[in-house]
Design brief:
Length: about 375
């Protein structure tokens, strides 16, 4: 619930901002229409006075004009040549009363508008109409609301960014535990084999343990590469793919629900420029996902690679498992999303980041007749 508070605040501010704009616009339009109506009435009265030659007609026209001016709501004070108030209109009650207070308020009006000077009447001190006052206040309030809205949006973006980074780092920690789990479990198996003291299996167990120790060392060094400038070493794609295939072949089921791992090498040597440690990490994610997809059913995983005509290499990891449901294919690379009940949803997003951000390539789930097929294109 607390995570939704900023969104509720922004929604409330946005609604208030839009509502104030609608109300303000409606009031401005209404006042402008009223002013246009009063102007038309004044014109009609003046035109009638010019047409009527009687003495009372001009007097009535002047009275009508004075009343129309008062109806505009403009505060007004007329002072004679000696500075004494002789007439007022629309003066606030707090300023009414004696002449001294009216002269003080005349100074307040002069701060808004310069007085009109007439040699016979004196000075006419006037303020602003209600529509002008609203036009000064409301835009400032709307600007302040928009600023608060912007600051709230920035806060939400930063908060979500921090939450996203925290989720990624938490996922990285879980991924590291996941990566370390495979060789550790394998080492336990080799130790149990040695405990049986079968001399014929000793060398195989020692070789397997050495491979697992090397893998643990590589896994430990992988996290040193995160956040650093990507390396650009010469990488033998064949050696990279075969090393991964050899490592997992002896660690997948071979009896019940057997999983086979095949490598389809290119006819010619394939070499790219990149970081072999990170690329191995990305490929291991794809192979491990394929192994998990075949768990409990068995099947075949194929690793293929070839040189691209335009340069670089293409690596394909495919399996004949159940594949990825169509409605989930657009989300499998999102951090935190997983189709497995025990998954953390960090593997594929990490693999894509390694391929795309560190190597300028692409990692995609491409259509296939059966199972899942991931394609890596490297420059």
């Amino acid at each position: 619930m607390h995570r939704r508070v900023p969104e509720l605040v922004i929604g409330t501010l946005l609604v208030a901002l839009l509502a104030s704009y609608v109300v303000y616009t409606h009031r401005v339009v209404r006042d402008l229409q009223a002013e246009a109506r009063r102007a038309s009435q004044r014109y009609a009265r003046v035109f009638r006075a010019q047409s009527d030659t009687s003495e009372s007609a001009s007097t009535q026209a002047m009275l009508d004009l004075a009343r129309s001016i008062r109806e505009q709501g403009v505060p007004l004070i007329v002072t004679n040549l000696r500075g004494e108030p002789t007439d007022t209109a629309n003066i606030p009650a707090s300023w009414g009363g004696d002449a001294a207070r009216l002269r003080t308020y005349a100074g307040v009006l002069d701060a808004d508008n310069a007085p009109v000077v007439d040699s016979l009447v004196g000075q006419i001190h006037f303020g602003n109409s209600p529509i002008v006052r609203w036009m000064r206040i409301i835009p400032a309030l709307q600007a302040a609301s928009a600023l608060v809205l912007l600051l709230a949006a920035v806060y939400i973006v930063r908060t979500r960014g921090n939450a996203e980074r925290e989720r990624v780092w938490a996922g990285m920690a879980r991924e590291s535990a996941h990566q370390l789990g495979t060789p550790l479990s394998s080492l336990m198996g080799w130790v149990e084999l040695l405990e049986e003291r079968n001399a014929d299996d000793t060398q195989a167990a020692v070789a397997g343990m050495r491979a697992d120790l090397l893998r643990l060392d590589r896994v430990a060094h992988r996290f040193e590469r995160i956040g650093r400038e990507p390396r650009r070493d010469a990488v033998d794609v064949r050696a990279l793919v075969e090393r991964i295939a050899d490592y997992f072949r002896v660690r997948v089921p071979r009896l019940a629900h057997a999983v086979e791992i095949d490598v389809m090498p290119a006819d010619e040597p394939v070499s790219i420029s990149g970081d072999a440690v990170l690329l191995e990490w990305a490929l291991e994610v794809l192979v491990k996902n394929a192994i998990d997809a075949l768990g409990g059913r068995g099947g075949r995983i194929t690793l293929a690679f070839a040189a691209r005509p335009e340069g670089g290499a293409r690596i394909v990891v495919s399996d004949d498992g159940p594949g990825v449901p169509r409605d989930l294919r657009g989300r499998i690379f999102e951090p935190g999303f997983s189709t497995k009940q025990t998954g953390w949803g960090i593997g594929l997003s990490l693999a894509r980041r390694i391929v795309e951000e560190n190597h300028g390539g692409t990692l995609q789930l491409v259509p296939s007749d059966r199972g899942a097929r991931f394609e890596i294109n490297l420059l």
